[in-house]
Write a structure and sequence with these properties.
379 residues; 4 strands; four-stranded mixed sheet; 15 helices; mainly alpha
Length: 379
């Protein structure tokens, strides 16, 4: 209890540092949500098209223009400025229907419709629309000579639309926001744990306190255990604060199984963060170097492992280095959960493998801490 009371006193004196790291998480979390506020939904694009029709009185050319008008934006231009219009992207595609087009088409003379384009994706879409109409028209022209019947058949075929059905029932946009929130918490959790735990351990290693613990009957393992319990109380209090913030900021999706997996992953990483901070605290002897350690460990691992920059944008050389850090497996789990459409044993295998790796990191740091503590006990 003496160690715990001392711990609480030191913690109370440094509460503003903890509030600062929490505020950083909250600020960047909300900032990230604002940047990702637009869902990645599909919307049909309409290219800008100019049509020069030299076969004005024909039903076929009028029907072609009517079809294109439904799928694209028909732009009016002066003929003298057509090249400039393409250059300045005023239009994406120019279509020139030749004279006597309908009669030549019905006579199977294969009249050519001249086109010009900007070469971009909008121009490709316009070309696809034109080719779609012409392919259908050519097909029916082989069997039908009456223009009105031909146009009716063309229109009946072209009015059929492909119905796209979303097979995924999960809200990918919300899950991506949750993943971003917990990815960024990698920095806040590591920085908060390292600062507070290292500060307390350096105070415990001051000469007067260290000598008293050495001559006492309390073993270094028991001291470590009590300090670990006190540090765990702090770290899990901080973790639950972040979890509550995630429920407030992210809402309903946190009440799903996906939300539960995010929380389990975060709590597992919290335990590893405690172990990391505990190991560093036993190595550090000077309070002045703690901020430098935070920059190297918390900030460095956040940049290398994808907390600030998405993993898919990081070069392979950086990811190879990131594999030796526990933050990589925590952040990788967040991305796995965000893209998990179905939850079963097969889809959970990568998630569980990362959890096992985090457990291995945890035991490695615990063993290393005991070795360092035993050495520090010697005067």
């Amino acid at each position: 209890m003496t160690i715990f009371k001392t711990y609480c006193k030191v913690l109370n004196k440094n509460k503003w540092i903890i509030i600062m790291y929490t505020a950083i998480l909250l600020f960047f979390g909300v900032f990230n949500f604002q940047n990702n506020n637009n869902p990645m939904n599909f919307t049909e694009s309409k290219p800008d098209i100019y049509i020069k029709n030299d076969d004005n009185n024909s039903e076929l050319s009028k029907n072609l223009i009517s079809f294109l008008n439904e799928k694209a934006n028909i732009i009016s231009l002066e003929e003298k400025s057509l090249e400039d219009a393409l250059f300045y992207r005023d239009v994406n595609y120019i279509i020139e229907i030749p004279k006597n087009y309908q009669n030549d088409f019905l006579s199977s003379k294969n009249p050519i419709i001249q086109t010009k384009s900007t070469g971009d994706y909008q121009a490709s879409l316009a070309e696809m629309l034109l080719n779609r109409y012409l392919n259908v028209a050519n097909r029916y022209n082989q069997f039908e000579s009456d223009i009105n019947t031909l146009i009716d058949q063309i229109n009946n075929t072209l009015k059929d639309e492909v119905i796209v059905e979303m097979t995924s029932k999960i809200d990918n946009d919300s899950l991506s926001k949750i993943a971003s929130f917990y990815n960024f918490s990698n920095y806040s959790m590591l920085a908060g744990c390292i600062y507070v735990i290292c500060l307390i351990l350096t105070i415990m290693k001051e000469d007067k306190i260290r000598k008293r613990t050495i001559i006492s009957n309390t073993s270094y393992k028991k001291i470590n255990r009590e300090l670990f319990i006190a540090n765990s109380f702090f770290a899990f209090s901080l973790a639950f604060l972040y979890i509550i913030l995630s429920f407030i900021l992210l809402g309903a999706e946190m009440f799903t199984i996906h939300g539960l997996l995010f929380i389990i992953n975060f709590l597992m990483f919290t335990v590893v963060a405690i172990a990391i901070a505990f190991t560093l605290g036993n190595l550090i002897k000077n309070k002045n170097v703690i901020n430098g350690v935070i920059n190297v460990i918390a900030l460095g691992s956040s940049f290398l492992c994808g907390a600030f920059v998405p993993i898919e944008f990081l070069p392979d050389s950086v990811l190879k280095i990131a594999h030796i850090l526990p933050s990589y497996y925590f952040i990788n789990n967040n991305e796995i959960i965000a893209n998990m459409e179905q939850i079963n044993l097969n889809t959970l295998n990568p998630f569980l493998m990362n959890i096992i790796i985090l457990v291995i990191f945890l035991f490695s740091f615990v063993v290393l801490t005991n070795i360092i503590s035993r050495r520090n006990q010697k005067i």
